[in-house]
């Protein structure tokens, strides 16, 4: 499904963009971190407009599970913290919600 690709691009853009602000404000990195951070956030917002749903709010709701999954990967790969079973269970539940939102027969077209 092409929408999943755009969800993945959005998640990478949002997490990396927000992390740039985190690095600047919480880790003492240079304010120049905001330049790639802002570009990443633009990519995030643009990618969500490409998702094949009829309503913006439904795209945002479905995206939430993908964002959580990518956040867990970010925790592991970038921050070096291995997710525990509760992280994985929470992400799994959220992904189930994403699938329900995307594939359920809504009254309004998806």
Automatic annotation (TrEMBL):
It comes from Planktothrix tepida PCC 9214. GO terms for cellular component: plasma membrane. Keywords: Cell membrane, Membrane, Transmembrane, Transmembrane helix. SUPFAM superfamilies: Multidrug resistance efflux transporter EmrE (SSF103481). InterPro entries: EmrE-like, UPF0060. Belongs to the UPF0060 family. It comes from the Bacteria. This is Uncharacterized protein. It is a multi-pass membrane protein. The keyword Cell membrane applies. The keyword Membrane applies. It is found in: Cell membrane. The chain crosses the membrane at residues 30-48, 60-77, 89-105.
